[in-house]
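Let's do one together. I've listed all components of the complex below, 822 residues spread over two lines.
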Amino acid sequence: MADKEKILSKEEELAKASRMNKIRTYLPVVGLVAIFALFNFLTDGGMSSQRNLTLLLNQIYVGMIAATGVFFIMTMGGLDFSQGSILGIASIAVCILSQYGIGIAIAGGVVAGAVIGAINGYFYVNRKIASFIVTICTMFLFRGFIKYMASDSPIRASMDVYNFDHIEIKLPLMLLIIAISFVAFRYTKFGTYLKAIGAGEKGAMFAGIRTDRMKFLIYTLAGAMTGLAAFINIAKNGSATANVGNQLETQILIALVLGGMPISGGAKVRFSNIIVGTLLYYVLYSGLTMMGLTTQTMQLIQGVIFLIFVAVFADRQSLKVIK
Amino acid sequence: MSEIRLQVQNLCKSFGITKAVQNVSFNINKGEVHALIGENGSGKSTLTNMLTGIYTIGSGKFILDGKEVHPKNQVEANLEGISIIVQELGTLSGLTVAENIFLGHEDQFVKHGIKNREAINRKANELLQQYGFKHIKAEHQIDEYNFEDRKLVEIVKATYFHPKIVVIDETTTALSQEGREELYKHMDRIRKEGNTVIFISHDLPEILDKSDTITIMRDGVYIDTVKSADVTEDDLKRLMVGREVTGDYYRPDYGEKVSDEVVLSVRNVSVPNVLEDVSFDLHKGEILGFGGLSESGMHEIGKAIFGASYDRTGTVTLADGTEINDIPTAIKHSIAYTSKDRDNESIIMNQSIGDNITLPSLDDLAGKCKLLSDKKLSDFANKFAAQMSVKMQNIDQFVSDLSGGNKQKVVLARWIGKDSDILVLDSPTRGIDIKVKQDIYQLMDTMRKHNKSIIMISEELMELIGMCDRIIIMKDGKLNGELPRSRDLDENLLISKMV
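Okay, and this is what the predicted structure of the assembly comes out as:
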C-alpha cells in the first residue's frame, strides 16, 4: 500500500515537472502570437502590413544569425557580452575591404569576428576567467576601437554592397545558416556535447568530451557568425558609424530568454528558443516603436519584461553552473 | 531499562507529493549509540535532517528530554543540544579552523560589537589539544587541511559543547580506516558521558559492532527497533530489503588461474605530491584491487590510467602499444572509469538518463554524415538501462532524480553500452545499499568471466578481499605490498600494510 502510494506520488510529481516544461516550451510561442495580435489590433493592422513586415524582417537577419552563435555559447553555460562590439569591428572590416571586392569583404568580416571570438575563448579557457568578465572587457575594448575608427565620420562601404541588399539573398542566407545550425545541434553529437558541458562540465570531460577545445571553438564560431551578420548589416546600411552594433549583446540575451532559454544553459535548451525568441523580441520592439514610444520608455519596458522572463524561466537547480 | 532521551512521535514529511517519512514513531535512549539503517531513500536522512533543523518538520513531534523541540536551523538545533556530522564536507572554505568550529556561536567572543579573534583561537586550540588533534592549528585556514583533517575539525565542532544528541550521517564511508577509528573513539566517549549518538551507515558489520540499538526504516516507514546483540547481519538485510537476500554476496570461486596476458601496463607513473613511481600490470580477465587510506594516492591511480591526471609523468600503455595520455584516447581504446566523486565526475546530474548513457558512444551510434537518429539513441539507452535494471520512469528523466545506487547503475550502463574492455571502478559501491551492491558484484563477476579486466579501487576492505584476484596496497603514494586472492586474507592483514 505504502509502496503504491509512493510510486503514484512520484508519478504525479513528474507530471508536474513535465507540465512546467510544457509551459516553458509553449509560453513563448503563445506570447509571440498574442503580442503580434495585440500590436496588430493597437495599430489598426499596421503591424501586419507588407511594409512593416519587410522592415521587421530586415531587422531580424542580423539578430537571428548572431543569436544562433550566442545560443551555442549559452547552451554551454557561458555568456557573451561582446557581440555588439564584434558586429561593430566586423562591420568596419567589411566596409574597408569592400573596396577590394565583395568576397574579400565577406571573408574579412568573418575573420574579424572569429579573431575577437578567439580572443574571448583564449582568456576564458586558457586564462580561466569567467566568460562574462572576459566578454565585458572585450566589449569595452573593441567599442573603444570602433569609436576611434568611426568617430569623425562613418566608414563608407563600396556601393557594390547594395547589390546584396535584397530579400532574395538575405532570407535564404539566414535560413541556410539556421538550417545547418539546427541539424548540427539537434542531430549530431555537437548539440549533445554542448548541452552536456552546460549541464556539468566535469562530467562531460570524464565522458570523453574535449571541453576546453570545444569552448574555445564555440566562442570563435559565434564570433565568425556575427562577423557574417556584419556583412548583411553593411549591405543594408552602407556604412559603419561609431554606434554600429551598439547593445546587440543585450538584445540577443533578451531575445533568447524571451524564447524560453534557461540562462544557465544545459539539457533544457531547445533550438526553437532562438527562433521564437528573436521573432518575439523584434515584434515587441517594432510594436513599441509603432506605438510611438520613446527610446527611453522602450528600454524601461524591455528591462521589466526581461526581468519577468528570467524570474519565470531561471532553472534554479542548475543556476550555479553559470560560468 | 535506560532513560528515554528522544521520543519521535508520528513524524511525517513530504516533498511535493512524495512522502519521504510517514508516521514514524520510536524512542531513543540516553547513553546509547542508536543506529538508523535502511536502503537509499528509506527516509533516515530526512528524519535526522528534521531533527537538526536542516529541513522543517512536516508534522509530528520530536520530544527531547520531555520537551518538544522544533529547531529552525542548525544553530538553533545546537542550542537545544543537537548536532550533526554530515557525509560530505561540512566545513566552510575560506574560514579558519577556529571560525569553523564556532560558526554560529561567535557571540560568546564578541564584546562591544568586536569579535575577539585571539580568544576564539585560544579556545579552539584548547579544544583541539583536548581531542588529541595536535597537528591542526586553530588560526590556519581550513583549506590547508585535507578531507580527513577537516572531518576531525567537524567532530570537534559537533561535540565540543557536549550535546545531548550527535547525529553522524554516513560519515564513515568518506573516511579512511584511521579517521574511522578516531570517530569511533569519540562516539564511545559521547555514550559514556550519558549522551546519545544517532549513527547512520550502510556498513552493516560496522553497525553491529559499534551500536547498541538499531532502528530499521524502509520506504519512509518505521519497521522495527532491535538490540544489536540479538541480531545478525542477515536479519538486518532481511528487515531492510523486506525479503530474503539470497545467493552469494561476493564471488564464490577461489584458486582460479588468471591469464598471463597483460592488457594494460603502468610504468613509473608519478603525480606530484600524490603518486610516486607506480608500476604494475593488469591481466586479461583479472580483477585487480587497490586498497589504502583515503590519501594514499589510490584514487589518483584510477585517474592516471584514464588520462585524467594533471601533471602525470610515466607511461600507461595498452597491449597494442597505445599510450593513454588523455580521456578521449582512453575511452576510444575501451577504457571505462567510474569516479569516487560520482555526482560530479561520473555522470552529468542535470541531464537525462538517456543522454548520460549514450554520451561516450555517440561516435559509434552516428550514421551517414555523422547524423544521429533519435530512435537509435533511445533504443540504445533503453537497452542498457534495462540490462542494468535502472529504476526509472523513462530515459528522459534527469539523473538528479535518482538515488545513489541508481545513478551508479546509469554510469555502469554507459560503459557496458560502450563495451569497454578495461574498467577502472573507483569506489563503485560507495553509499549504495545492499541490493544494488550485490548487483554490482555479480556484474563484475560476469564481466571477469567474459575476459574484461577490472581495476577496483575501494576503501571497503571486505569487498576487496571478496572480489579481487590480487590486491595492491598503497601507502603514501607508493605501492606497499601485493596480496593474491585467498580465503585466508583478513582485514587486519590489509590494515597492517596500509598504516
